């Protein structure tokens, strides 16, 4: 199959996508009588067998609560849970394990910061900066926070290609900017923001910066110390891990100064009715029994993903993206939305012949899974004066054959709607 | 699952060329429908005289199913009384959500082309958006104020 593809020829030894595909059991099934072509990894990536096994083993063998009991099962589960935290730390290159807080995902990580840092620090007249291409989860928590504190939400506009430019960012940055919340990679368009540069500008003004890394973790290198971001939020399920688990990285000094997000078990050192002493980092922010199996599954996902040469993974995905860009542009009546230079893994598009929802149903009947809708980024849709797009998005396992299948399915759309 | 069952010629035709795609004058009721999942939008206006819908039209944006459903609905309800319209909606709703409505297809006339929707649960909301907008317009007493 791939012998004929330019991808295999470009990097023969470094990355064997057919072997990768063997690791993902969900790929090997028929839908509507056709082999599954999965092009929806920006919504959630499929899971390799090693992640599925790791989660199963937690329940089959090490099933117990953590940080509590003295019995062996709890010791094993606690050890594996904390090993996962170390894997996350190493993967994003945080300085300390205590700077990694497990959350339900990106959304909860952002809400944690908005709730805890935001309420403690924002005052009337302060400004919170977001960009026009944010996912709703990096807009709404800040809107709520602004309503509660009297601060103002300020939006950095994007270009018609879907870029956030330094000049536009600088224009909105003022001495009143206290906080910047922005995507590392756009979920709707695939644009990669020049975050290192923007973070430096924000820091010059004394602002604190959070990056929404949900779409970035599996497509670009993330080094929180090199980026110098203050917070970094991401989800496990877009990184080949389970749903319901993610993490917040935060600089120790900031996390230390923040009040707890939720109160409950595990986040305390001692409790009386008069006073509660909070636990040390990161446990101060992990109230209640966490998603133990999820965290251990995330650790397995990082083990799996990090076992590849990252440059080879990115090169493979970018080659498929270029092939897909050319292939879609060659289909009459197809228009790509979001054409930022250097974008990754996402192809949002429209067809003259049919509405995205109809495209989605028709290509599904051909076995091709894509996403249709506003992708939880309605301001992005508004920018382009559209209600929705069809979106094909890539993962480590996608090939140019998958793109050929998509293009074939789009021809069915044209036949039907022609 | 046959796509032609869903995308019948009538649906493709009404999707491309929606009928009554205009606001009737005069009108005394208005409803606005929105599907937040896919962004489909419909604004429906109608003239209710006594309990009879004497004119109806809509402007909308969305997928072929939602726009064709609203288009065929406006054709079906024009000149009908409220009890007749409610009976039609009830039959239509049953048809697109369960197999029980299969016997009633004759009573639905052209609307029966949407029978294939029940095989596509994700699209039921598309097919019923126009009808929900109609119900909203009929419930909306304040709609009378929009007579121009």
Textual characterization of the structure:
The complex is a heterodimer of chains A (418) and B (148). Chain A is 40% helix and 17% strand. Chain A contains 15 helices and 17 strands. Chain A has helices at residues 6-10, 17-22, 49-60, 72-92, 106-121, 140-149, 166-172, 195-204, 224-227, 252-257, 292-306, 310-329, 356-365, 378-383, 400-417; strands at residues 30-31, 34-35, 37-38, 100-103, 127-131, 152-156, 177-183, 208-212, 231-235, 246-250, 268-271, 276-278, 334-337, 346-351, 368-369, 371-373, 389-393. In chain A, the strands form five sheets. In chain A, strands 4-10-9-8-7-5-6 form a seven-stranded mixed beta sheet, with helices on both faces. The radius of gyration of chain A is 22 Å and the shape is globular. Chain A starts with 5 loop residues before the first helix and ends with a helix. The relative contact order of chain A is 0.17. Chain B has a single domain, classed as Sufe protein. Chain: A (Alpha-Beta Complex). Chain B is 42% helix and 18% strand. Chain B contains six helices and three strands; from the N terminus they run ααβββαααα. Chain B has helices at 3-6, 9-16, 64-77, 82-97, 105-108, 124-139; strands at residues 29-35, 40-49, 52-61. In chain B, helix 3 crosses helix 6 (124-139). The relative contact order of chain B is 0.22. The model of chain B is unreliable at 143-148 (pLDDT under 50).
Summarize the structure.
Chain A is α/β, with parallel strands linked by helices. Helix content of chain A is about 40%, strand content about 15%.
Task: Sum up the structure in keywords.
heterodimer, A: about 425 residues, alpha/beta, Aspartate Aminotransferase, domain 1, Aspartate Aminotransferase, domain 2, 2 domains, four-stranded antiparallel sheet, 15 helices, 17 strands, about 40% helix, disordered N terminus, B: alpha+beta, Sufe protein. Chain: A, 3 strands, disordered C terminus
C-alpha-based Rg of chain B, rounded: 14 Å
Number of helical elements of chain B: 6
Q: What fraction strand of chain A?
A: 15-25%
For the biggest sheet of chain A, the summary is:
7 strands, mixed
What count of helical segments of chain A does DSSP give? 15
List the uncertain runs of chain A: 1-13
**Whole-number radius of gyration of chain A?**
22 Å
Binned strand content of chain B: 15-25%
Structural class by SSE content of chain B: alpha+beta
Identify the biggest protein-protein contact and residues per side.
A-B, 19 and 22 residues
Question: Helicity level of chain A, as a percent range?
Answer: 25-40%
CATH topology grouping of chain B = Sufe protein. Chain: A
CATH class of chain B: Alpha Beta
* Major beta-sheet overview of chain B: 3 strands, antiparallel
Count every beta strand of chain B, where a strand is a DSSP E run of 2 or more residues: 3
CATH architecture assignment of chain B: Alpha-Beta Complex
Strand order of the largest sheet of chain A: 4-10-9-8-7-5-6
Structural class of chain A: alpha/beta
